[in-house]
Amino acid sequence: MYIHQVAAYLPAAVVTNEHFTRLNGLSHEWIIERTGIRERRKAAPGENTNTMAVEATTRVLAAATDLAATDIDLIVGGTYTPHDTIFTMAHAVQHAVGVTDIPVVSVSSACSSLLNAIEIVEGYFALGKARNALVVVSEHNTAYNNEGDTVAGHLWGDGAAALLITKERLAPTDLRMVDLLTGGAAPVGKANTAVTLKPVERGIVMPFGKDVFIHACQYMARVTKEILERNQLGVDDVTYLIPHQANLRITKNVVQQLGLPEERAVSNIDYLGNTGCAGAAIGLADTWHQLQPGNHVVITVFGGGYSYGAMLLER
Prior knowledge:
Layout: E1 2-9, E2 13-16, H1 17-24, H2 28-35, E3 39-42, H3 49-63, E4 74-78, H4 89-97, E5 104-107, H5 113-126, E6 132-140, H6 141-144, E7 158-166, E8 175-184, E9 196-198, E10 203-205, H7 209-230, E11 240-243, H8 248-258, H9 269-272, H10 279-287, E12 296-303, E13 307-314
Parallel strand pairs: 4-5, 4-6, 11-12
Antiparallel strand pairs: 1-7, 1-8, 2-3, 6-7, 8-13, 9-10, 12-13
């Protein structure tokens, strides 16, 4: 299967670290040192997970020259910040696209939902139930975030991305999905309490950020090594590593464990913050036009809960 095109949508409003300095005394330098985040985007009034997903979809369809909306026969949406849990983000995208009588699926595995959504596509393709899929990941973190929380309130940003995935190659620029691995690690560490979002309670809470940090570093490095070894590739073969965009220190730790030069790691954390399961897809959109024939890209993710995964792509 192939990623034919990818596109992102980011809200216009920018929230700098100075906002949190004024709000709760956290300095710009303190936030940078611990997270690498300088600013993040915030959805405007009237924007939400669904509207951002639709905007990303509009952009990816506009960029696709070999695939029309009417060719889509599967939509998979990923988010942990739903606008509506019944008329889901995937349904909102289907409504906007206007294609009826196709499978529409929503999935949530925290910040690793991107790869689980693509894995669902893999299954539909393998069973012959679809040939052209639209995967959309969108997070409206600021709708659930408590900005006054000095532990995690400054981490979150909003954004969305959409990917067109096909069973056959449509263009020379398509990225072939060589391999995909995912896993759940719910019995590990403080997975059940480290980071939670209970909409009827306090929204996003991260009381055990250190536990998240430790396991994110371990699992993203481990699954990256595993997917490379399964495909007889070494770290030197990786053109770009696109990790989950949670914390710049996590990215640097994973890169160090792998022995990969830092410049090969794609990062948008500094200007977007943690955009949840959309972060790595936005990173792929940022990198898309730099890719050359023969390049290998690894996307590796880790989500609260815990869940993890890696995907190997080749142009």
